[in-house]
Amino acid sequence: MANEEDDPIIQEIDVFLARSLLEKLYLFQYPIRPASMTYDDVTHLSAKIKPKQQKVELEMAIDTLNPNYCRSKGEQIALNVDGTCTDETSTYSSKLMDKQTFCSSQAASNVSRYAAAVYKKGELHLTPLHGILQLRPSFTYLDKADAKHREREAANEGGDSSQDEAEDDVKQITVRFSRPETEQARQRRVQSYEFLQKRQAEEHWVHLHYYGLKDSRSEHERQYLFSQGHGLAENTELIKSPSEYLMMLMPASVEEENDKPVAPSNVLSMAQLRTLPLADQIKILMKNVKVMPFANLMSLLGSGTDSTAVLRCIQQVAMLVQGNWVVKSDVLYPKDTSSPHSGVPAEVLCRGRDFVMWKFTQDRWVVRKEVAAVTKLCPEDVKDFLEHMSVARINKGWEFMLPYDEDFVKKHPDIVQRQHMLWMGIQAKLEKVYNLLKEHLTPKKQEAQSAHPLLVSGEQRVSMAKAKVKQNYGQLEKELQKQKAEMKSNDTSAKMDVSNIRIKEEPVSDEEPMDTSAYEGMNNGIVNGLHAEENSTDSFNGHLPGGCVDRVAQELKAFVSSTFKKQFVLTLSELKRLFNLHLASLPPGHTLFSGISDKMLQDMVLDTGCKQILVPFPPQTAASPDELKVYALWEAGDTYDQHRQVLLEIFSKNYRVRRNVIQNQLSQECGEDLNKQEVDRVLK
């Protein structure tokens, strides 16, 4: 009460609602101008509007005589935009930037709370606003200047063309035939950003006439801002009870549907998902995920969900493959739909996808070419099927994306048996449709589904190689001891001549030892990798003193690994040459002088992650056998591993390939378009 006494009412003003300009009155917000310049002084050359979009474009004249106007800059802008010639299409006919365009944007989407007020003779007249538009400078003339600059550059470079550029102009084109548009596709197209932009561009501009502030027409229109009648019948909206007026000022907090962010039609939040029936939840999840273990499905459905009810519903929309659930084909391809790639009807797509699912019930690996040969579908459709449930592995095929779920199979044998009977029925149907042969029905590897693929790491390979070397060393050591015993029994007292010792071949290989005769002069007295000064007979022919086997393997592995990381691809002949150069740089008595055969060298190359590339050289080639053996580093750990492997696969089929074939194959297998520099880097 004390506050009300301190703040007395000074004056009461009658408020009237004017309706004459209802849904016609807009508020324009102009950029800030200097205080010395009012909009009465601004000359509006033209104005136009798009009523549906509430978009306005005004063109205003610039006072070029103002001392703040930079004339040289205005002339430069006009020259950049229009060039030296002046015609009807010129933006600035006076060769001077003498006008500026302003484009509007909506300042607020909901303007129902705003009104224009006019106070006159103790009365306040309100007119609701239909829109609030902010006008900002438009710089489209800069785009026009850029276009002119590009045209001039193109004209200057038009005469310079080479044979290589002419060849680059020849491009492969793909012809596609349009198919009938479905209702769902039409709705997506209508809601797309590109379609909306096109619709907005199609609306025609309506040209307006501008009247100044002191014009008689403006004076006449301003009279409509006043309420035409002061009777109660004209202002019933302003006659409200105190409670109704308070409700209008502070309405109840109701979440309007329009204020919620609109998600795409194919996106559903987890909160919205859990409001649906259980069967619909499972169907939506499986349709989006496509392959899922049962445990993951239960975690998505939330705690407290009955697993029995889930099992009953999941069998209606999915099939069991290797202990995991894969969505049924008819859920992904409903009736009366067709392939987005080839236009094939949904029934044919379902049969092809069922064949892929059935193949994964037989084996973890599926070959894409085999699926395409049996189903007779286009490669894009087959790739879609495989991507739904598997992952591509280079040189192996497509592997099922999830491991075998042993826990589910053990806990639910009745479900597994029922699914097996369903697959037997699908198999019988596929045999009739595709006329499957025995080779299609029998899995390539008769392994239990629970068996996991054997993975051998690099450390395991090195351990296996060391064990193999130790085994060979033990056998050779026994033979040497036996030979020494025979020599002692003959009472041979003469010293052995090193040159008369017969070098035995390793029993594990039929290949000849490494030929180093061409490098005798360079090896400083090395004979077969040995120094002639060494007198110990235990070091001959690869026989190492105890404890040196591991060190030899490590040294040899380090050499091979560093060499292939530099060269990537080597023939056996070149590798032997580099190895002999490496031996020549080593000090006398090094462990690698114990004698390294071709077999040991090749085994170490394979153990360090390299592979032999069987390049089909022509029969009439003059190359030596060692030059025909090609080894390549399969995985270097860089970004070009996949590209390099695809390239090696190409050369394993043909020793001579055109560059454009290589580029197309790399783009197809790697799923990305490589430019010329990237292809050159891979080839190098």
Essential attributes:
684 residues; alpha+beta; 6-stranded mixed sheet; 3-stranded mixed sheet; 27 helices; 20 strands; RNA_pol_III_Rpc5; DNA-directed RNA polymerase III subunit RPC5
Structure description:
This is DNA-directed RNA polymerase III subunit RPC5. One of its GO terms (cellular component) is RNA polymerase III complex. Keywords: DNA-directed RNA polymerase, Transcription. One of its GO terms (biological process) is tRNA transcription by RNA polymerase III. InterPro entries: RNA_pol_III_Rpc5, RPC5_C. The protein is an alpha+beta fold. Among the domains are: 138 residues; 165 residues, no CATH class; 137 residues, no CATH class. It is built from 27 helices and 20 strands. The protein has a 6-stranded mixed beta sheet, with no helix packed on it. β14 and β15 form a beta hairpin. α21 packs across α23. The longest helix is centred in the last third of the chain and has 32 residues. It is elongated, with a radius of gyration of 43 Å.
Level of helix content? 40-55%
Sheet/helix structural class: alpha+beta
Strand adjacency order, main sheet? 2-8-5-4-3-9
Q: Which descriptor suits the 3D outline?
A: elongated
GO cellular component, one term: RNA polymerase III complex
Keywords: DNA-directed RNA polymerase, Transcription
InterPro entries: RNA_pol_III_Rpc5 (IPR006886), RPC5_C (IPR045576)
Protein name: DNA-directed RNA polymerase III subunit RPC5
